[in-house]
Amino acid sequence: MIRYSPLLDTAEFRIGRFDHPREHRHRDPVLEVTPEYSVNRVERGSFAVEIGRRHWELGPGDLFLNYPGMVYRCRHCELVPSDVCMTIAYVPSASSSQETAAFERAARTRPVLPPSNRLAYLFLQVARISNEQMAAEEAAHCVIAEIACQSVPVRRAYREHQLSWYAERVDAVRRQIDRHYAAEQRLAWLARSVGMSSFHFARIFRELVGIPPHSYLRRIRLQQAARRLREGSSVTEACFTSGYQNLSHFSRQFCRHFGVRASTYARQVTR
Q1: pTM (predicted TM-score)
Q2: Percent with pLDDT over 90 in the chain
């Protein structure tokens, strides 16, 4: 018997956990057919997956990718299996057809992925913020996008307590940048604030967040500048209140990020 415990249910995602009730013996079905796109991460325990003649043994940190119509079989060695999986079921929209096709190609090519620190961090984010719908959906989108672009690195996976330690410090710096984006920021200061060296912190931040700290800061500043433009600020006001010190540099960065000049963006959103 398999038990599903929902964490979040939206139009695009169903997020939850699968486990096995201790009071019931489990019998593996001969074959199963997947009705949806999903990413399943093993949190505890182990089991085997068979797809045609291919066979994998999954353990903590491994990911099992599903697409509609996929035929597979799971095998457990225990009468009452101890494995626990967190699942993100994905309901694609019409506007995400390319990403969905890319995800399915990745799932058909490599339905089982080894532990990834980046994806482990994203799943940790989803689990921690499942009561914040928008933030959880954003993290879930990042999981799908990471797999769709097939950029999942094969690197030494962090132990659970080590990942949690790194995640707490990365999240603390992200909150600091989110709150004080307009202030001057230095990598050494940010790293020191969470008790890490600059080099080590920069590497961990990039691995878990997907972009380096300076790119994250730039993205937040540009998002805040765009918000101010939507609220009626001038381009100059949006530039300096979002943390930029040079108007020309801001204009180039804004155009590169949004695809339009800041002045054009301001006119478009105020019509």
Answers
A1: 0.77
A2: 61
